[in-house]
Design a protein that fits this description.
Blueprint lengths: L1 H10 L12 H7 L3 H13 L10 H16 L2 H13 L5 H9 L5 H18 L4 H22 L12 H5 L3 H45 L4 H22 L1
Length: 242
């Protein structure tokens, strides 16, 4: 239960009370629960669909984006914005890390977030209600699991909130999380879900290795960016194969 609460506290703004002592190794073990937390966030975001008879799909899509952003505290969108700022143009590793560490968001980061949200909005309003709630659960589940995959890479920065997760991350927990995520895909999207899982995984691995090649590893910001890209990629593939 302790490790579940650690994952819940890190991935959401929900207050958690952990009475037991927390060691650094516990953060790595909590990665096992990241996909489950993602599926829960997706289910909570999809709860607005009970009002679909009274609200337009456009309004529902905006509320879904609002709920998911508020629950996560905008953590991953912030990482996506910083990553856009840092990786734009030809820069050295040191310059990229310095820009991403800057608390100010640049113009490229703002443009990146706006375009990302517009793409998500366009995808959400393209689904029927029956597919939309399934798409939310699987995409959020997959995005949080892919965060754990990133933790297998070396941490490129000297400090950061996510560094403690990478220090003791092990393949066993991440593989178990991957199996859970694959089961979620197959349960909610049938055989198409399995194809979408592997297609999205391969596409996002390209981005992960691109990041590694640019800065020699990952940071909290690039993990957040990977999560946002993974979520959007999954939604897009569901849109193509629905």
């Amino acid at each position: 239960m302790k490790h579940f609460l650690i994952a819940l506290g890190f991935l959401t703004i929900l207050p958690v009370n952990i009475s037991k002592e927390i060691k650094e190794e516990d953060f790595a073990v909590s990665l096992l629960y990241f996909p489950l937390i993602g599926a829960i966030i997706g289910a909570v975001s999809a709860s607005i669909l009970v009002f679909y008879k009274f609200l337009s799909i456009q309004v529902i899509a905006v509320i879904i984006l609002l709920i998911s952003t508020v629950i996560s505290g905008g953590l991953h969108l912030d990482g996506f914005a910083d990553t856009c700022d840092g990786f734009y143009g030809i820069r050295s590793k040191e310059e990229i890390l310095r820009i991403m560490h800057d608390p100010k968001v640049g113009a490229i980061g703002v443009v990146g977030v706006v375009l990302l949200l517009l793409l998500k909005f366009s995808l959400l309003i393209s689904f029927s209600i029956n597919i939309l709630w399934r798409a939310l659960i699987v995409s959020f589940c997959f995005a949080r699991w892919l965060q754990t995959v990133c933790c297998l890479l070396p941490y490129a920065s000297c400090e950061g909130k996510a560094k403690v997760f990478t220090k003791y991350a092990n393949k066993r927990n991440i593989i178990i999380g991957g199996i859970f995520t694959l089961i979620v895909f197959s349960c909610f999207l049938n055989l198409k879900g399995i194809a979408i899982f592997f297609a999205s995984f391969i596409l996002n691995l390209i981005f992960i290795f691109y990041v590694k090649n640019r800065i020699g590893g990952i940071t909290g910001d690039t993990i957040g960016a990977t999560s946002e890209i993974a979520e959007t990629t999954t939604l897009f593939l569901i849109y193509l194969l629905k």
